[in-house]
Amino acid sequence: MRIFSLLQAGKHATLTSFFSPMYLAFFLPACILFYAVMPKRGKKYALLLESLGFFWLVSGQYIAWLLVSIVSIWGCGLWIGWIQQKRDAAVKAAEKPQRKAIKQKYLGYTRLVLALAALGNLGILLVLKYSGFFVQNVNSVFGLKISVPAYVMPIGISFYTLQAISYLFDVYQGTVKADRNLMRVALFLSFFPQIVEGPICRYNQTADQLWNAGQIRYDNLTLGLQRIGFGLMKKLVVADRLNTFVEGVFDQYWEFQGGVIAIAAVCYTIQLYMDFSGSMDAVTGMAQIFGITMPENFKRPFFSRTISEFWTRWHVTLGTWFKDYIFYPVTMSKPMKKLTGAARKKLGNHFGPLVAGAIALFCVWFCNGVWHGAAWSFIFFGMYHFALILGGSLIAPAVKKLNEKIGFSPEKPFCHLVQVLRTCVLVVIGELFFRAAGLRAGMNMFGRMVTDFRFSSLNAALLEALSIDGADFLIVGVTVLIVFVISLLNEKGICVRGSLQKKPTPVRWAVLYALILYIIIFGAYGVGYVPVDPMYANF
Amino acid sequence: MRKHFLSSVAFLLILVVLLAALSPVFRPKNNTAEAGTQDVQADGILGEPENTIDVLFLGNSEAYCSFIPMEIWKEHGITSYVCSTPAQRMYQSVEYLRSVFRTQRPQIVVVMALAICWDYSPVEVVTKMTGEWLPVVRYHDRWKSLQAEDFYKPVRYTHVEADKGYRLYRESRAADTTEYMEPTDAVERLPSKNVRRLEIIHRLCQEHGAQLVLVSVPSTYNWNGRRHNAMTALAESMGIAYLDLNCMQQEVPIDWEMDTWDEGDHLNFTGAKKVTAFMGEWLEDTGLFEDKRSQEAYSQWNVFLQDYLASEASE
């Protein structure tokens, strides 16, 4: 009876945090143990059972949605595959002149099925996530009083939906073959470490790995646990420690000078990075324990020299999803190709392709903003990055000429540093709007930063009111420095984890003990701290 | 395989040894907030002179809102201490009792019945108990205030609480009594782990010559007929006294318009005085205690009493 009470549906919201004691000390060890004792043929089913069990424990009855969605994705994938098979057979049997028409005919069918499945799954996300925002805006524009719906969303629905749609697109594009095995599709879509916050994997990246997962190997286990430990340090020592300060300033920004708001914006950017990349370290580490290699979601984003580069290093799997499934399909569509041809004639080879590119880029960044949340501040966040990237492309020739004229070589270390710092500043401004409690609040905060850039009110009393002190900032600084040095080494091609693995056992253990003790002593947990949910789990 | 297993065990053992070695450094060296103690009011009992406490109250916030040791001292000359913390679980009560019995010999131990109704997860127990066994985990945040003496200074508890664990709330927010204590035959199912913890408390009390008493203090929010029935049956089965003050409107005339500070969840000062008046009489009626008000060894209680009377009169 007591065991069953532990397995109650939807009663374990703390499991959404990979760093909760419930997850780290109980759920994960239980999963590893269950997986390890299963015979080789049963391991994939163990992973599937654990994944569905995880969803059941966190989201309860919403597992019905997950199961129906998985079956629909699997079924539609097969349907598209079946149409493509029929097309291939028809094309093979037809004379050459007729083949194009046959292909067109079947293309229409596959598009219809794809649209049906994608919109069906996307529709649920749209209703649950955006209907409240939509009704709110309709009310304010037309002066209506329609009651605003508020739904509880299944955990990870935003990540899951994109991953599911990517599978259908890949089948449609012929990148992967439709999988006849429902269980394999189910495991690919529901693998428990990644369903909460991603990464958004492609079918050909993880499906076979998951299905063929073998024995737990000692080196995978230790490396995976090390990676989880590194993520735990980022989350507990930095992200959670900064939370009270960031929350305090953002929630009552009108009481703070612009300089303090700027510090809070920097702290929030650090917090978000440490939280999300720390969670990704945990996901990657957990997957590694089972012998699965996950795609990396962060590639040292703060070394980027431009905003475009930043988005190839930050939340990589989301960026590539938008690139592959929105940007390319839009730019490669017939109307856009026509537009590019016409624009190239009038505007030249640089600006001509930018017209269609700008339209595709707008779609990408509108979707990116909206994906993060149903609010104008998120749409603004998307448009801000759209404007920066498009603006960068538009002024690129002029900047190149200017650089040549003034002798500014972007490859010189100092110039490189200036570009990196400029990108960081632009990112921090974007994150200010991202975190602000609405677009108006974001504008007001930014306005204060510009018009009242002072720090004189930043004293011990203010910090005490925000439940943070100099020692907190010091330990945050030290930890950020540790992460920076490791990132710098990785950037230079030195794999820190790999190097550590080659060291003698006493050295290796000493480093690991240092990491564990560092987390235990300097982590923001226990009395006086409120556990902070993973920040991206809410998106 | 065997090598890896042994290596993992060795790694974990060394880690535990490291944590155990660091724990004395992080453990607060005194029972004050400045020294890093987290539950100063409850831990004040650690600073009381040995074998000077007659009655111990254990439990959650209901205890520190309902019993005023200084009132009991003023009226009856009985020394008591409220060793209670917010949402104190039964497993925590057991630990508190063990630590109290190391220096005190209370003759009566009063346990709040409400905590017996509360369920909790094994994760919570392991997390909390890890902090108890390895103080470096519980008091890790002391890294900010560590000094050289923390590495060699022994633990010495010197702080005594003037209010002896009671926390004063004067506000008044009326309670809704619509369904309060409606008669029923239904019986609430008590978590078996709490019953087991109560048995441990009972055994500890017997070993130390103390009498165990279960008490439900008045609370429209927390108490009802189902819980009363369950607790009555439990007390009977264990052969311990049970006082449900929710059923004693004559003896404890709580005015739910005035005597609660949070709409019936907890009692305020006026409510606590009524409960304490009854409890003091009940304790005296047991005949277990002598009046210590004139004893020199307890002179500090009279000093604290003056403080209490002054604060009582100030409002």
**Structural class by secondary-structure content of chain A:** mainly alpha
Global morphology of chain A = globular
SSE order of chain B in H/E notation?
A: HHEHHEHEHHHHEHEHH
Number of helices of chain A: 20
Task: Provide mean pLDDT of chain A, rounded.
Answer: 91
Per DSSP, the total helix count of chain B is 12
Distance between the termini of chain A: 36 Å
Radius of gyration of chain A: 25 Å
Q: Give the termini distance of chain B in whole angstroms.
A: 72 Å
- Oligomeric composition of the shown chains: heterodimer
Task: Give the SSE string of chain A.
Answer: HHHHHHHHHHHHHHHHHHHH
CATH level-3 fold name of chain B: Rossmann fold
**Architecture (CATH level 2) name of chain B:** 3-Layer(aba) Sandwich
Average pLDDT, all residues of chain B: 94
Strand order of the largest sheet of chain B: 2-1-3-4-5
Biggest sheet layout of chain B: 5 strands, parallel
* Class based on secondary structure composition and strand pairing of chain B: alpha/beta
Within CATH, the superfamily of chain B carries the name SGNH hydrolase
Determine the most extensive contact between two protein chains.
A-B, 24 and 25 residues
> Helix proportion of residues of chain B, in percent?
40-55%
Flag low-confidence runs of chain B: none
Structural description of this entry:
Chain A has 539 residues and is an all-alpha fold. Chain A contains 20 helices and no strands. Chain A has a domain at 2-215. The longest helix of chain A has 47 residues, at 96-142. Helices cover 73% and strands 0% of the residues of chain A. Chain A is globular and about 80 Å long. The model of chain A has no long low-confidence stretch (mean pLDDT 91). Chain B is an alpha/beta fold and 315 residues long. Chain B has a single domain (32-314), classed as Rossmann fold, CATH 3.40.50. Chain B is built from 12 helices and 5 strands. A 5-stranded parallel β-sheet of chain B has the order 2-1-3-4-5, with helices on both faces. In chain B, strand 4, helix 10 and strand 5 (241-244) form a beta-alpha-beta unit. The radius of gyration of chain B is 21 Å and the shape is globular. Chain B starts with a helix and ends with a helix. The relative contact order of chain B is 0.17. Chain A binds chain B through residues 2, 5-6, 21-22, 25-26, 218, 469, 471, 505, 509, 512-513, 516-517, 520-523, 525-528, and chain B through 4, 7, 11, 14-15, 18-19, 22, 26, 38, 119, 121-123, 126-127, 131, 136-138, 140-141, 143-144, 192.
